[in-house]
Amino acid sequence: MKSALEIAAAVRGGQSALVAVEESLTAIRARNEELNVFLYVDEDGARAAAALVDERVRRGEDPGLLAGVPIALKDNLCTTGIPTTCSSKILEGWKPPYNATVVDRLVAQGAISMGKTNLDEFAMGSSTENSAFGPTRNPLDPARVPGGSSGGSAAAVASNMTPISLGSDTGGSIRQPAALCGLVGVKPTYGLVSRYGLIAFASSLDQIGPFANSVTDAALLLEAIAGYDPMDSTSLPESAPSLMAHVNDGVAGKRIGLVRELVDGADEDVVRAVNKAVETLKDAGATIVEISIPELHLGLSAYYIIAPAEASSNLARFDGVRFGNRVDGEDVTAMMEATRTAGFGAEVKRRIMLGTYALSTGYFDAYYGQALKVRTRMIEAFATAYQQVDMIIGATTPSVAFEFGSKTNDPMAMYLNDVFTIPTNLAGEAAISVPFGTGEANLPIGVQLLGPGRSEARLFAAARVLEIADGRA
Amino acid sequence: MTEPLSRDDVAHVAKLARLRLTEDELVRYTEQLGKILVHAQDLSSLDLHGVAPTAHPFGLVNVVRNDEVRASLDPAPVLAQAPDVEDGRFAVPRIVGEAP
Prior knowledge:
The complex is a heterodimer.
Chain A: H1 4-12, H2 17-35, E1 38-41, H3 43-58, E2 70-74, H4 101-108, E3 112-117, H5 151-158, E4 164-168, H6 175-181, E5 184-187, E6 208-212, H7 215-225, E7 255-259, H8 268-283, E8 287-291, H9 299-314, H10 332-343, H11 346-358, H12 365-388, E9 391-395, H13 411-415, H14 422-427, E10 430-438, E11 444-451, H15 456-469
Helix pairs in contact in A: 2-3, 9-11, 9-12
Chain B: H1 7-16, H2 23-44, H3 75-80, E1 85-86, E2 89-90
Helix pairs in contact in B: 1-2
């Protein structure tokens, strides 16, 4: 499949938007049953949207940055009249009465939604095995997980069903599946992309971001969706940054920190890839500084208190009253209990209870209070590091894609998958995962570049250097 | 190390969270939540006296808008997605009259 940039250029040049849409539908038909990528394919909607884009071109209007580009949407993004499930039985059959802001922006930019992709229920997981509608398979090796929680959106791009897709990243849910599927994945600065219409998991951590086959396509998509939105009170009050203009800026003169804590504990093949990436950036003119940020070791513990605490509050709204499914009970409390017990899966219940416990009387200070202070420490530690360096490099995940069932019985083993990605969310900063080399079983490895808030342009430029060196562009 | 939480704690938390657990689930969740909390206990051993908590990465300030009437969601499509509706409102089973 062509890149998003190429498709948009062709459509602006007069090629019907239907060409790429039909190609996408053919690819979906070929492998969706096997891989379980899309929970809902909006065939008619996609064709109708393509006709509207063609009409815009015919009238001489600007058809947008993403004119005629097929895109897949993680199924925790609200889409008017289109089922939005969060891969949970509790929302099965629900059709939102409004679009997420990002969906409206995609439409305005001419993108064409092909449908909604599978995820770990309510974005809680690292393998897509927690979906109520079955796991998504990794297109590169269907015996392995695609990562999660945005596993469906990653698999859509990795299987060439769409050239780009949107996911959400609360502790690594874009970067980890991007690494495991050989894609570029971006966790933007907190507040850069509106979350209005993203069904909340942990509000102080959630951020929407792109998947793409290339750094350029990821930059294009992020530019199209970023910028202030009055409907999100956490939205940064500024317009979308210029990213496309900077992807070829390179890294000459940049100082890049190799952070021990973001490599320690990773498999040998992953460590080797990071070291090779470091050499590549050095050859491209960057100065590498080895640094240590011991506070990063506390990230996982703090995250697994803060995220469940926020989730326990956010998911209180799923009580059978206003939306989603209801299981009847003799009074309102019985109804709510029956609804939530039947509607939520095991991991969601686990996190709700963990969060409820951490926020309950007698334990609040020991767990939640401490975790919030650790978060301050982490932000300060990153700030100190960024006085020395322009960005940080490390691994995205400890290993390549793992096999189904290998971590499902031990929640802690699964959580450890996010150990390198979580600190960025706690700090509200930006990070990108870019494929660089292969490891075990010839599977892709993701290298992670991290920067302070609003450093996306510089991260994209560095990722592009690695992408070129890796022979991907 | 002492067990961070007991079966009774889990039963209590499930009640607060409006979840019903089977006996099997109670046993399993007690074990699993215990393991996660043991991992989290390295937080409680830290001396963080005087460190301000961060609930939000960029020091969120309250956002207000002008008190002006503007369009919002049309009630009809919202209510159409509700499990039960009566007279243009969400309907729920009995609330009052529960035994204390």
